[in-house]
Amino acid sequence: MRSVRSVLSWLAITLSWTMSASAPLPESSGDPELLQFVQKNREFVLRIKEDATRTRKLMRKEFKLGNDDELMLMQELLGISQVDLSLCRTDPCDMAGCFNQIRTGLHTYHGYFSHIKEILPSFTSHIESLQVDISNLSSNLQQQMQESGLAVVAYPTVENPTRPSFLESEKQIGSYLALRNFEKFLEMTFRALRHCSS
Questions:
Q1: Which residues contact 15 (CB under 8 A, 6 or more apart)?
Q2: Which of 132, 153, 163, 179 has the most other CB atoms within 10 Å of its CB?
Q3: CA 185, CA 105: separation in Å to the nearest integer?
Q4: 90 versus 30: which is more confidently predicted?
Q5: Secondary structure, 3-state, 25-74
Q6: Helices 171-196, 68-78: inter-axial angle, 10-degree rounding
Q7: Which of 84, 90, 127 has the alpha carbon at shortest distance from 102?
């Protein structure tokens, strides 16, 4: 029964994501340049998510990881949390706060992926490709914020950053779960861009 509920829950999430991705942008009183920016970068987010999903599936196949229930339990045990995008859910949208939170999340995952490259060198090319896209998306957001006169958070370069504990103790599962969380983060980013343009 538990596995049936898990499948039904997964189907509901997938259906909701598909409908959201295919739906047209709502009418907006905002400027056309913002709408164009949002549309372009929502498409970019979708492409990054597709690449992340492919990489995660390759990891699962290579490492022969367990079922979803076991992996969810491991995520709880390892204390892998999602980044905060609460400012992206305010009504009306707090664009400055939301975009800065998205950029903070992108910065966080870029750091995670730097560690994953070190501990799983066979996935270096896949992870580096994701990092390039992360940097480009963050730059796109920063440029739009500057053009809109919004305050931009700067991120100093950190030498020899500390490796997250979940990547230290469970290298393969931790890396897989980081990628899965990244996909969920991109889903939230997709919805946030839509919300901030309406």
A1: none
A2: 179
A3: 8
A4: 90
A5: CCCCCCCHHHHHHHHHHHHHHHHHHHHHHHHHHHHHHHHCCCCHHHHHHH
A6: 90
A7: 84
Query: Residue 112, class by beta-carbon neighbours within 10 Å (0-12 exposed, 13-18 middle, 19+ buried)?
Result: buried
Query: H-helix or E-strand containing 191?
Result: helix 171-196
Those residues whose C-beta lies under 8 Å from the C-beta of residue 153, and which sit 6 or more positions away, are 100, 103, 104
Looking up tokens 């809109």 gives 148
- 91 pLDDT above the threshold of 70: yes
Model confidence band, residue 153 (pLDDT cutoffs 50, 70, 90): confident
| Count helices and strands in the chain by DSSP H and E runs | 7, 0
pLDDT at 83 over 50: yes
**Residue 147 amino acid letter:** E
pLDDT of residue 68: 81
**C-alpha 53: how far from chain center:** 11
